[in-house]
Amino acid sequence: MNASEREYLPRLDHLRFLAAALVVCFHYFHRFVPDIAPKNLLLSLLDEGHVGIGLFMVISGFIFTQLCLGRTVSYGGFIRNRLIRIYPMFVFGIFISLLVSTYNYHRNYGVRELLEWIIPFRASSVPFSDYFVQLWTIWVEFQFYLIFPFLLFFVERQGARYLAMLLLTLLTVRCLVFLDTGTVRFIAYESILGRLDQFLIGMACALIHQRHATCFARRWLAPVAFLGILAVVAGFNRHGGGTNLNTPLWLIWPWIEAIAWGFFLLAYIQWPINLPMWLETGVARLGSVSFSIYVMHNLVLAPLARHVGVPVFLGPVRCGLNSAWLRSAPSGMPVLITTSPSLVVTR
User: Fold this and answer.
1) Is the separation of the CB atoms in 242 and 50 below 8 Å?
2) Termini Cα distance of the chain
3) Which of the four pLDDT bands, split at 50, 70 and 90, describes residue 311?
């Protein structure tokens, strides 16, 4: 959201950075380490740091609705601007991924795989992308862009009722799939059949913001909303979190995650607490490059984890024993171990 486009909300950039930071921490902690079940609320947020993706989706729905509601949107111009904004960095990451996979891992990817990655649908080779597996979210995001002008058209005519009907339709689809297969984790987490719910809830937040923004301008509301996120994520973590593939919680988890983030978004952008200017502008600048951070972070994390150290949380572990990983860790690698909120560094 640029200053020339309605009201610039720098705290949206803060939230972008928060989303990117959560995903970065999630991938760093879980690159070689089994899933954990920490009792600490903040550690639960890091263990389920993939929820940063949900925040990205909510922000997207909010921003586009905030900018475009009540305006004439040129479909071609809208898509062109999205392409210009995200595809240069996206394609750069794709080229690195395919070249490294071809020359380092001898998978010999060519033009067909390149086209698969560029078209905004899931590429068959994405599970083998060591550094850019996270790019699947860009395909889902671009699918939002393709349908957003149509969504906006109907929202302007039918209001929030249209969003509610579409959310119920998506929930019905997930229920039918769950009744047939016993799981909806992957479509709820990795496809538009779950992530669109979060984009739509972001759109609903924009409608609320335009009509009731002042209701969220309370000093206590943003901290309470963040505590609510911690509680929601910790509860999700206690029920198996992202590794519990068969729980029916995945039917409504996209809603729960998005509503929690949406409430925090509305409270934070109206929070009447003035942060120090250096902090306000510094975090906003980091947020403005959050897309680049998101695209490139795994390429940085891989050597960092190998040569600096991987945090290992000892305690309740859901997926295997950490001791097995410790025995296989390269000798001399620093390992960060915690059994409580306090940290202990050992070698």
Assistant:
1) yes
2) 46
3) low
Query: With a threshold of 0.90, does the pTM exceed it?
Result: no
Take residue 342 and report the two structure tokens written for it. 């306090």
Q: Give 110-130 pLDDT, tens digit per residue.
A: 888 889 899 888 888 887 888
Cα-Cα-Cα-Cα dihedral sign, residues 176, 252, 203, 297: negative
The count of other CB atoms within 10 Å of the CB of residue 38 is 21
Q: How far apart are CA 158 and CA 57, in angstroms?
A: 22
* Distance from C-alpha of 125 to C-alpha of 105, rounded to nearest angstrom: 13
CA gap 266, 96 in Å, rounded = 37
CB count, 10 Å around CB of 307?
11
- Strands, E assignment, the chain: 310-313, 335-338, 344-346
With bands split at pLDDT 50, 70 and 90, how would you rate the model's confidence at 6? low
**Distance between CA atoms of residues 241 and 265, nearest Å:** 23
